Amino acid sequence: MNAQLKPLQTGDFRLLIGGRLVPGASTIDVINPATEQVVAACPRADVAQANEAVAAAKAAFPAWAARPLAERRALLMKLADAIDARVAELAPLLTQEQGKPLGGAFFELMVASANIRGIAALDLPVATVKETAEARVVRVRSPLGVVAAITPWNFPVIMMVTKLTPALLAGNTVVVKPAPTTPLTTLKVGELCAEIFPPGVVNVIADANDLGGVLTAHPDVAKIAFTGSTATGRKVMASAAPTLKRLTLELGGNDAAIVLDDVDPKDIAPKLFFAAMVNSGQVCLAAKRIFVHESIYDAVCAELAKLATAAKVGNGLDEGVEFGPLQNRMQFEKVKAIIEDARAHGKIIAGGQPHQGPGFFIQPTIVSGLPDSARLVCEEQFGPVMPVLKYSKLEDAIARANTSEYGLGATVWSKSPERAYEVAMKLDTGTVWINKHLDLPPGVPYGGTKQSGYGVELGQHGLEEFTQAKIINMAK
Ligand code: NAD
Questions:
Q1: Which of 134, 133, 136, 192 is CA-nearest to residue 160?
Q2: Taking the model in full, what pTM does it have?
């Protein structure tokens, strides 16, 4: 790995509005969660600049929509190449603002460019709905107009391109707004977009958590592609109602992992550990409630505790670090409070010690013996804390898993694919993985049931969410 670290300067970062890289109306400090030092002063757009970005996207829309899809695809492929070419510069920046280990930052950027290529390879063919002697009915897919892409702080680049790519491929223009704690890498990808796309087709603004509502209420925004918390998702939905905007809402999750009685504890523990702790647990689709059959419960707990104790937590730029800090102070404080609630109601069998010194670090923590009413079980922890819950009857575990208000994903672990499939069929979630986790290739859609949102991202279905199905009904 060839990480190039250059000291960052105020002025290194620019908003992208109407094809021009411009300073913000003011700046906002971006904090490195490993050191609590300022990474850079980031340009912060004001309402006028947000409106300018929407106006630029609106003005660019007709010409962009009129270009053949193959041309739009070719430019998206250039963006994937540009990200690959700049990965050595972007990865350390991502680590500094997000906290994830450098290897994880390289991985995120690699997935981002792979997702661009995978989504851009899709097509929007004309479909024949009906063909008779009297009539021919076809369905075409037209673009919607201006798309607002609003992203969270856990995977800033993946989340950005997973919205940008299908929106642009379908012929829409875009205003991207990253989370205020992780805007820097997104702005750098914006610079790459400035070199590739016509002015106004891609706009990137940054805020202090105050411009999302401006975009979601804007009469010239046709669709909102949003990833974030369920609480904010509700506000987005309410704000979009007056103009009936199209919405994709990828929201929170409290995914169950159901571990059947036939697995080997030593074999399963590292898989469960990864499923819960990857990206320090800050993954919408992380395993957040681990249901383990009573016959193997103690053995699985013991193996998980060993892994948690051995895990190397630290500054993501340091060699050998496996887990970085929590991304921001608010999340750090929330997870610490959830750990204290877990300490009061269950048994902490690894981790759980307060961190001394700067940085929002939490050692991977394993908790056994919790009731389902504990905060760690019924809320989304979004951090490296894993509740291991005991069950005796499989039907009960499934029922407990389904009580959540969320329904994003789930995993089932068993030596018997048939038994696991039966369980999967009964789980009320958008995705169920069997004996694997986080397999999200660009061709396979994912999305949530219940309060995990609606709509899907990725795959053909994800692409079609950026279009209007238009019927052309022709007499013969
Ligand atoms: P968040 O909801 O606080 O913020 C997400 C984005 O919304 C940010 O860009 C924020 O500035 C913006 N925002 C804030 N107020 C807004 C408003 N009123 N209108 C419009 N936008 C507004 O979420 P977060 O804390 O950044 O991310 C963590 C959450 O995201 C977790 O709940 C996690 O599960 C969820 N998430 C879901 C997925 C998924 O695909 N389902 C993926 C990643 C994260």
A1: 192
A2: 0.97
